[in-house]
Amino acid sequence: MAYTRLIALASALLVLATAPALAARCGNNASGFESWKRSFAQEAKANGIGQRGINALMGTQYAYGTIKADRGQHSFKLSLDQFMKKRGASAIASQGKRYKASNAALFNAIERQYGVPPGPLLAIWGMETGFGRYMGRQNTLSAVATLAYDCRRPQFFTPHLYAALQLIDRGALSPSQVGAMHGEVGHTQFLPRNVLLYGVDGSGDGRVDLNNKADALASTANFLRGHGWRPGAGYQPGQPNYRAIQGWNAAGVYQQTIAIVGAQIDGR
Questions:
Q1: What is the annotated signal peptide range for this record (predicted)?
Q2: CATH topology for the 79-135+197-266 domain
Q3: Pick from 258, 253, 206, 249: which is nearest to 227 by CA?
Q4: β-bridge pairing 138-139 and 178-179
Q5: 3-state secondary structure of 21
Q6: What local confidence, expressed as pLDDT, does residue 25 receive?
C-alpha cells in the first residue's frame, strides 16, 4: 500500500474513531427521520464532514425497503442444506468454475498479491450479486442513513454513514449511488467503511470503483487478508483461514457455504 494511501486511510479512520456518541435520537419509523438528519448533520460537520457530504445527507429519504429487508433476514435461520439450496450453491459452484477459467489472469494476479485463491472470492461474488448480475437498486446513502437512524443497530451503521459521507466529500461515491438494501455497493457488496478500509484499485486505472469487477475482487481479497488470511492455509471450518471468512459475514450458514462452494471451485 502506497505511503500516500496510508496517510489518507489514517485520516479517514481518525474521523470515525473520534466521532462522539450521537446525541441525535434514534427512531423506529419515519416520523423522526428529518429531525434526526438535521441533528446528525450538525454533528457530522463538527467532525469534519464537508458541505458536499452534508448536502447529500440532507437529500436522503427514509428507506422503507431497507427497513423491511433488515427485519426479514429469515434465510440465515435455515439449516445449511436448506440455505445452500435456497441460495443456489450448486449453480454458483458450476458458474464459478467457468468464471475462474475465463478470468484466469485476474485471479492469478490477485492470488499473487493477496494470497487468496479464486474459490472463496468467486463464492462470495456469486452469493452476493450472482457474479455482478444484480447489484441492487436502493440508494446507498439513504439506506445507510436510515439504518444509522433506526434504533435496532445505530452503533453498527453510524461509522458506515460517516464513511459514506467522507467518500462523497472526496468524490469517490456519488450521492445517487445505488446498491443493496443495507447500503452495500459493487460486485461483492462492500459497506462504506469497508470501502475506506479495504478498497483497492485492481484494474490499474488509478481509482477504486467496486462496480468494476477487478477492483471489487481485489478489494475482497484485501478484506480477507486484513482479517488474517494466510497464503496457502486451508479455509474450511477449523482451518486457519476460516476466521477470515467469518469476518465477511456473521451468519454461520453463509460462512460454511462460502467455504464449501469455494472448495468446489478450487477443486479441493
A1: 1-23
A2: Lysozyme (1.10.530)
A3: 249
A4: antiparallel
A5: coil
A6: 86
Question: Domain ranges in the chain?
Answer: 3-20+32-70+136-185, 79-135+197-266
Contact between residue 53 and residue 44 where contact means Cβ atoms under 8 Å apart: yes
Segment 132-169, tens digit of pLDDT = 999 999 999 999 999 999 999 999 999 999 999 999 99
pLDDT at 9 exceeding the cut of 80? no
Whole-number Å distance between alpha carbons of 243 and 232:
14
Q: What is the CATH number of domain 3-20+32-70+136-185?
A: 1.10.8
Catalytic residue list contains 43? no
Cα angle: 237, vertex 238, 240; to 5 degrees: 100
Distances (CA, A) of 79 to 85, 187, 243, 249: 10, 26, 20, 16
Could you say which of 34, 43, 111, 128 is catalytic? 128
Strand partners, 139: 178
Q: pTM for the whole thing?
A: 0.88
Q: Do residues 167 and 196 touch, judged by C-beta distance below 8 A?
A: yes
The CA–CA distances, whole Å, from 11 to 7, 33, 161, 163, 226 equal 6, 29, 16, 11, 18
Closest CA to 188 of 145, 139, 237, 130: 130
- Residue type (1 letter), 73: Q
